[in-house]
Structures are given as C-alpha cells and as structure tokens.
Amino acid sequence: xxxxxxxxxxxxxxxxxxxxxxxxxxxxxxxxxxxxxxxxxxxxxxxxxxxxxxxxxxxxxxxxxxxxxxxxxxxxxxxxx
Length: 81
Fold this sequence. Notes:
It is rod-shaped, with a radius of gyration of 20 Å. The protein has helices at 10-44, 51-73. Helices cover 72% and strands 0% of the residues. The longest helix has 35 residues, at 10-44.
C-alpha cells in the first residue's frame, strides 16, 4: 500500500520542474529546426521561397520558439515556503 504523503511532496515538485525544463528544451530544439529548415531551403533551391515569407514567418517563428523554450527551460525550481 502507498504511504499517506503530504500534498506538497518534494519529489512531485522536482518531477514537475524537470518536466517543465525538458519541455522547454524540446521547444527550443523545434525552434532551431524551423530556422535551420528555412536556412537550408535558401541554400539548396535556386530562388527558394520568397524572401518576404521568411522574414515575416519562418525566422521569427523559429526565434520565438527558441525564446519561449529558453524561458521555460530557465525556470528555477519552486522553493517550499
């Protein structure tokens, strides 16, 4: 049987924090892949996608995903008060 643990379990808080950090790192990876895909598209195809599309959609999306992931991954663990 399980022990009666208090609601604010330290192990649970640690697991939640690690999950948040790993999710942030995954979002950063997706953002980097978006930016890399746009860079490769410009290098491999003569003419490539329209420049305005990349300036307004591709690179900012990749940058925002990296930034959002960095904010999530940079969170400090919640301290018990």
